[in-house]
Write a structure and sequence with these properties.
alpha+beta, 4-stranded mixed sheet, about 20% helix, NUDIX_hydrolase_dom, hydrolase
């Protein structure tokens, strides 16, 4: 039986690199974001998760959907999929590790192998568009 984990993620690309976050006790980086709470929209979830994980404030009016990706969920039994709706959005503040996040890093395409499986397609799309180096 397939199980689906529904998430949203904030795609922040600067100077040919994408911002990645690594949770405490985890090995792989992921594109910052997370699961929605009951009644939340994608943008509400995105703003809350980014505030909790990176201590920055997103401008909800500037959020733009850039794609939705599905893959095997890292660290979950086979058949558990994660669906990740990705958005860009303007922000205030400097991203820093906060809450459950142990480390943040600016990742190039060559770092793709250091990320969760669902992130691979995002890296591929960004590299194909010339946005990742």
């Amino acid at each position: 039986m397939t199980r689906l984990i529904d998430t949203v993620a904030w795609v922040l690309v600067e100077n040919g690199r994408i911002l990645g976050a690594r949770s405490r006790g985890r090995e792989l980086f992921y594109i910052p974001g997370g699961k929605r709470e009951p009644g939340e929209s994608d943008v509400q979830t995105l703003a809350r998760e980014v505030r909790e994980e990176l201590a920055v404030t997103l401008d909800p009016e500037s959020a733009v959907h850039v794609g939705t990706y599905t893959a095997q969920a890292d660290g979950h039994p086979e058949g558990t999929l994660v669906r990740m709706a990705c958005y860009t959005a303007r922000h205030e503040g400097e991203p820093r590790a906060s809450g459950e996040i142990e480390e943040i890093a600016w990742l190039a395409f060559a770092d793709r192998h250091r990320t969760a499986p669902v992130d691979h397609a995002v890296f591929d799309d960004l590299a194909g568009a010339g946005r990742l180096r």
